[in-house]
Amino acid sequence: MKRKIKKSAYVVALAFVFTVVISCEKDFTDIGSSIISNTKFSTGSLEVDVAIENSPVSDLNFGTTPLNSGILLLGVHASDDYEKIEASIISQLAIDTNIEVINSDTLAKYETLTTDVFTTIDTVFLRLPYQVTLNTAGDAYELDSIIGDQSKPFTLNVYQSGTYLSDLNLSDTSKKRVYSPNDSYIAIDRTSGGELNKDENFRFLPKATDTEIEVIRRLNDNTAYKTETVTYTNSATSTVPLPFAVIPLKEDKIKELFLDQYGAINFESQEKFNDYFKGIFIEATGDEGSLISFNFNGVESPSIEVYYTNTVRETATNDTIKTFRKNDRFLLSGIRTSTYKKNVSKTYPADKIVLQGAAGSEATIELFGTDANTVAAEIEALRAKNLLINDASLTVYVDKTADITAVPYQLFLYKTDGATSNPVYNQIKDIYTEGAFSFGGLLERDAEGAPEKYTFRITDYISDILSGPTAPSTLGLKVINSTDLLPVTDTIYTNFNWNPKAVTLSNTPILNISYSEKKN
User: Can you give the pTM of this predicted structure?
Assistant: First the structure.
């Protein structure tokens, strides 16, 4: 239900106050801020009717190139004030087509009539580097890009994907495939014991102290002969280790799926490998925990790490002659996407405007109200006054009684035709005439540091409405996405959503217009 907020009954008053503005360069001076200041003109301001309502977006999409920003969500976000999201990741793996368990020349040298070569996997794990910020001391990293309760784990399982990932629409290969968080994917052998992770229902808890892993090297008789400590840094000169999540995988299963296939047809090309191993499915479930943004285009990308030892033994005596330690890495690369499992959409009261990026919770705004006749009359009354619009700003206010632990740093405003099927979105004029910084939408805090409001400057947009035949559009308001502020080359706007943050607004937005008018 729409809630119309009447800000001022200004139409009648305008009839007594405003006079027709006759503007020419000799009558006024423009001082850069569009405000007129001289003896022939006076300035004033007014507030305009604004109606706002919740407006869920059902057709969320990641575009034809899934998440080209490289940001994918994994985990659980559960809050009484917002929709619960369980976010999982599906990704292809990149291979080296020349990969070998042991170098062919070395194998020919050591695998003779009197020797045998054995391969033992020491450890294999899924590695997920966190997004981090260096602390003020410069000696450790702090985790960022995480929302929710980081003190409680969520459940994670890793499967082989049974869904082929393609950049083409398989039902019409002349078109690109559009990926959506609502897409479903097949997890091979989902039954108990079919997961690739060593510990079924792995309890995932993000920690900034997870900066290393010990790899115990073993001979083929399981005898430990060396321990290695593995760390990662963001550069060759850095000594500060990067935090990363480690999910141990089943050694025998990875040996069967990967090492035993080296040199076979499945590793002849990336294309053949993608047909054989369609991808990895990292599934998060639960009713509590945190939702984590992982950067797949970062300095350290997510990967499957396989550490193994080749042991050369004397056949007759079984004595160890030589060992070769190896580490093979399979980057989560190629086509990567996410899928979200959400609870039944919440119904929010009219006085609670909820914006939740990845859940598709947005709002629509009617700047001059919702009654068509009244809107037309008010706009025509303003047009008749020939006002010079100096500034117009739309401000929305944070409801501090709701959950504000994951408030977005910025919101985004755009035009929509309001269609329920195949809606058309357009940029607001000010974003490409004045630039993103001037357009605004950044979070502003009160004196105590609490989230307070977001303000958009839409001067050109309002000027066009009040100076000509341009009709006001329905506006969409959403949590900003990393793609929203890309260089604007067209008025057409593509609404992508994968920012997990959320905020509740009051239903009392304010549109303030400052103007200049000629004095009597």
Answer: 0.84
